[in-house]
Design a protein that fits this description.
By secondary structure, the chain is mainly α. It contains 10 helices and no strands. Helix 2 packs across helix 4, helix 8 crosses helix 10 and helix 9 crosses helix 10.
Amino acid sequence: MISEKTDAELVHEVTQGNMVAFRSLYYRHVDNVFSLVTRILGPFRTEREDVVQEVFFQVYRSIGRFKGESSFATWVHRIAINVTYSYLRRPRLSKQALTPTALNTLSTRDMSENKIDARRAVQQMYALLEQLSVKNRVVFILYEFQGLTLDQIAQTLKIPLNTASSRLRRSRETLMQALAVNTSLNTGEV
């Protein structure tokens, strides 16, 4: 059961050792964190739950440093981005792209043609996103999928506004080039 107390009240209780308050914060924010992690990692990555668990471990460890300068949800959002970003930068994961073989092994049993087509489109989109550097991918996803402004992204990632803008521009350029290559390969042009 989620508490009717505000996040600030629950944070205070957690700093006093109240684990029930932390559980309330967890249940209040876990769906949004899982959604964000899924958008950054991609919906077909099995590590999503591990990353979400790590996010809340970091939230618990750091909750005493929450100053209330932003909303608690924004603070958790920032931790989720940083943990996911760190997770993607690990050498074993950064090289682990969704290959055509991996994409074909996903179950399509009992799915309509439209659902299968939609799933393949999402798979292809995330395969393209794998071609972006981690820094550019995070900015692109926060801007295009999460709807954050460049200013909000710069604040969240603690980077200059110009850096956020150039990362978004580079990610768009890379994706457009990748789409052009995929289109020419699919149509037989080279």
